[in-house]
Amino acid sequence: MLATIGNLRHWEVDFVAGTAIAVLLVIGVGAGAHLAHRLPAMLLRRVVATVLVAVGTVFAARIGYVALFPPGA
Fold first, then answer.
1. Domain parsing of the chain, residue ranges
2. Tens digit of pLDDT for each residue in 12-28?
3. What is the pTM of this model?
4. Judging by beta carbons within 10 Å of its beta carbon (0-12, 13-18, 19+), is residue 13 exposed, middle or buried?
5. What letters, b where the CB count within 10 A reaches 16 and e where it falls short, cover 54-64?
């Protein structure tokens, strides 16, 4: 919020992109809530665990890559 206010002071806010992101977030939250109430809890746990492990793996790989090949080196 504070970053948006700072950007707004310099007229650097993309209202079209912000509106598009807000609309997609509302749709995603609605769809996620709908699925969360209809899918078995164990399936949701496994999906969330898989996504978290995958994201953690990607982050670790990127950190390792940057450590091996620093930008500007």
1. 1-38, 40-73
2. 778 898 899 999 999 99
3. 0.58
4. middle
5. eeeeeeeeeee
